[in-house]
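Hey all, sorry for the wall of text incoming. These are the two entities for the joint prediction.
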Amino acid sequence: MINKYFFEIVSVLLTSSTIFSLELKLALFEQRVNRESLKLLSKLQSSSIQQCLPHRRNFRLPQQSVNPRRYQEGQALAILHEMLQQIFNLFRANISSDGWEESHVEKFLTELHQQLEYLEALAGLECEQDSGTLGRDNVRLQIKMYFRRIHDYLESQEYSSCAWTIVRVEINRCLFLAFQLIRKIRK
Amino acid sequence: RRMFSLLGATTLVLVAGAPWTLPAAVGGINLKSPQNVEVHIIDDTFTLSWNRSDLAVGNVTFSADYQVPRNDTWLKLPGCQSITSTKCNFSSLKLNIYEEVKLRIRAEKGNDTSPWHNVDAFTPFEKAQIGPPKVHLEAEDKAIKINISPPGAKDGIMWALDSSSFTYSLAIWKNSSSAEVRTKTVYPRDKIYQLSPETTYCLKVRARLLPRKIGAYSPVHCIKTTVENKLPPPENIRIDAKNDIYVLKWDYAYENVTFQAQWLHAYFRKIPGSESGKWRQISDCANVKTTQCVIPQNTFQKGIYLIRVQASDGNTTSVWSKDKRFDPQLQSVLAPPVINMKSTNDVSLRVYISAPEESENKSVNQHYSVIYEIVFWENISNAERKTLEKRTDLTFPNLKPLTVYCAKARALTADERWNKSSIFSDPVCEKTKAGNTSKTWLIAGICVALLSIPVVSYVLKLLLRCIRYVFFPSSKPPSTIHEYLSEPPLRNLLLFTSEEQTERCFIIENTNILTAVEEPDQAGEDHKKYNSQTSQDSGNYSNEDESNGSKCGEDFPQEEAE
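and here's what came out:
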């Protein structure tokens, strides 16, 4: 729940309206995606999680590389964009698979898509020159690698419902990291 | 053997020109490593190319190795072993495209080999170039439908994670002569509008991937638009938001037609080839005869939608209209603010602006950073004053007394990109108070007086303190002394007091020598001397004693006080 006063405080603090609107969208986004992803997860019964425990896998979320403290705002935006893009990619192909409640996935994708559009509309992302400074540990690549592992895992598990359960829990972790980036950008 | 040595000699001659390239010959032949070795990656095709160094040497083959991180051994690069040409394809190797890989290549002839030529380590994904996308076109009378498949093979790994991240830019021109080229960013499934019927258009498309990759153009495709349809599609589609409904409107020139409308989640546009069959009917707009229909607001949740409308006259149907992008969040209405006005005594009016109260149809003002435009005018004249304010509390000073003024306000989004504004609030009018200048002065005077009271009292207080300091000095010792004093008595009480005091009493009461011997400290010795000289002069003695710094503190404050 977003504190009502939050906006007032922020509007005073932020002189740039551009940042404000982004900030606002991100704030709303965080709230909504969180809600949708939680709904997605809440569809899982604890028993199904229990029975899927043996299928757990360490996908090696690049937590250190994505540590928001390491990046400037522009870079954090780029990383966030990549993460959301990949999450979108992961779920979009399987909208109607696995008997998920389609509307929830749809809502989730809608939120992701809207946010991606907003992020892309920011001119900063277009000329992301300084991502070169990320150099060897290019974070975009690390994120891609992480999602590659997830895709490979799903494939090896033949997209079983347990595999999806594990992946959904994992994506929630990933979103948590994305929210940290959002908070960083908001600062 | 002779042949070999001859060859060897020629190579040596050749080498002489570039003596840095080679170490000692192996087995009589100086094979040189290949030069200008380059890796090319387009989509999922990996090629390695190089130049031969020894053109004179026949039957030379080339072989390459590769090395991946966390593995020190070099492995044979499949597809690049014993190659006689100067190019090989190693696409069959399944690499982790996001990790660095190292390559090396050498020339071979029989048992002889050249030194390895090392290729700089590279990350396949970084190195990869985007190939041309595949394009499928479909003509309408005034538009071309375009369907783009992402570059690379369908099951390719290079862009597997990015197939929906591509953006496409399109260049289109009329086939006839040197017509201008229009460029446009398109979705994988999109439509190019504003074309002429029965005209051949040519276009090419290339893919882009953030942050920096720009792909190669597809081959040029040409297509002729069809004969103009009898029934044109509806145009100029727009959506107005009102309280709890959306009104979908469009323009149409002909009578006696019915319309239908559909919507689609805009994200389907990002997913190649998935759009068909995903469009959903807007039931409230089915078979309407008017050029508008009313949609309940809850039809659309948050998100981005596409809406299209089609006309039909029973026999034929028009093509679909241009898709209208619709973001309910942006569509939502700003509610007008509520204003209050109060006249103040100094012939000013104070205006308070507050956000509208939340009703059923939630105002979204709280979602935006808003500024207010306030229009202020004298009731009888038309001269208006307009101000843009972020504050919600402002004063219009220096007005005419006993005059009615009115104000109204509207909310605007501070961010111009949203470009939203509310309607004006109802005007509020208020009469200014009788502007009595003497009265104002009186008030000002009182204010000044009130303000000056603390100042004056403070100055007085300071003065008083000075006087007291000069004429009635404080009876208290300075703090350092006080500090010094505050401790000894305690200590005396606890430890020595009894001893010393009894002893002193002894001295005064009895004759001197006996007790003096028993005194341990220096002060005691002093006692002895004084006592022996002036046994009776107790006041003098004690004074001396104290100024020596002895610990007999009880008398001290009294002495000071004197």
